Amino acid sequence: MSANNNRRSFLTASATMAAGAGFIAIAPGISLIEVSHARPAGEAASKANRWGMLIDSNKCTAGCDACVKACSTENRINEQVADPRQRSQWIRKIDIKDKASGRQHSLPMMCQHCAEPPCVDVCPTGASMKRADGIVLVDRHICIGCRYCMMACPYKARSFVHQPLTEQNPEVPRGIGCVESCTLCVHRVDKGQLPACVEACTEGAMLFGDLADPNSEISRRIAQEATTQVRADLKLNPGVRYQGI
Questions:
Q1: Domain encompassing residue 136
Q2: Tens of pLDDT, residues 60-78
Q3: Phi, psi of 92 (to 5 degrees)
Q4: DSSP 228
Q5: Number of neighbours of residue 95 by Cβ within 10 angstroms
Q6: Cα distance between residue 38 and residue 138, in whole Å
Q7: Rounded distance between C-alpha atoms, residue 208 and residue 219, angstroms
Q8: CA torsion sign, 116 to 122 to 124 to 127?
Q9: Total Cβ atoms within 10 A of residue 133
Q10: What is the model's pLDDT at position 37?
């Protein structure tokens, strides 16, 4: 996906600052992270930021799939397929169990937006790419559908589009014969908004922010509380961290 396509102006002079909250409310249910985090149209992503997510499995309720539904709605992942194995899914809920303690967790799993993404390493065309701000994307215009990246991803986070698509979100171009995965809702992030899954999580289990900013809430939480990177042994340095597992 081209990160510069279909950028919109995200803020108008009539937007009002929420007193003391550090964010802007533009409509009911929609809030913006700090204005400085919005990226003007045509401006390249900056390595001064590294966007990431912290997921608290202690707050993630088994059976809740609000994040999955929000992702599907926002990105128009609604195609019907005869074979469930061919269904695109950018985020999924998984259940895990600690064999020693018997403790169970339910948590969302998606592209981990690695600092050292193996999907990028194996892509023969450069379609799999990492932006300067750490968001890993696929440029559908040069993806040849070889699926090497799907095999390289240890998180099984990528999907292949098997059929023509309709009713697409113009800000989220998708296409048959291409590989795709979670984009952290980059079209929203570039406007200063939260990813759809984070906004939809009523349990407060998902926190989005700038890992490169030591003063951000996500950085403070990671510094103060025990968190885990899934398959940290692979030394990919994922941008998605989990708490409680």
A1: 16-243
A2: 988 899 999 999 999 999 8
A3: -140, 155
A4: B
A5: 10
A6: 22
A7: 10
A8: negative
A9: 26
A10: 65
- At residue 131, the pLDDT reads 96
pLDDT of residue 79: 85
CA nearest 241: which of 203, 226, 135, 204?
Answer: 226
Beta carbons of 137 and 129 less than 8 angstroms apart:
yes
Angle at 76 between CA 205 and CA 208, to 5 degrees: 25
**What length does the chain have?**
245
CATH number at residue 100: 3.30.70.20
- The single-letter DSSP state of residue 44 is P
H or E segment and range at residue 186 = helix 186-189
Phi, psi of 130 (to 5 degrees): -120, 125
Element (H, E) at 187: helix 186-189
The DSSP H or E segment spanning 72 is: helix 66-75
Is 8 part of any domain? no
Q: How many domains does the chain have?
A: 1
Token pair for 218: 């996500």
In the predicted model, what is the mean pLDDT of residues 212-228?
96
